[in-house]
Amino acid sequence: MAKVRITQRKSMIKRPETQQLTIKSLGLGRLNKSVEVEYTPQIQGMVKKVSHLVSVTEI
Question: What are phi and psi of 57, to 5 degrees?
């Protein structure tokens, strides 16, 4: 699996609870915070759910 860097670009204020929980489970929570993870199918699904809040770059 490829490694990717996921960066939170937008705020979670006034977002549905499911999106907030998804951001937390990715290890994010503040603007411009980044995490490096393996790009598994589970991570792909989470990123798709909050794609409007995060950016993804391949490492």
Answer: -130, 140
Q: Where are the domains of the chain?
A: 3-58
User: Model pTM?
Assistant: 0.91
Q: What is the mean pLDDT of residues 24-44?
A: 96
| Contacts within 8 Å (CB) and 24+ apart, 19-26 | 19/49, 19/50, 19/53, 22/46, 22/49, 22/50, 23/50, 23/53, 23/54, 26/50, 26/54
Considering the four listed CATH numbers 2.170.120.30, 3.30.1390.20, 3.30.10.20, 3.30.460.10, the one that applies to the domain covering 3-58 is 3.30.1390.20
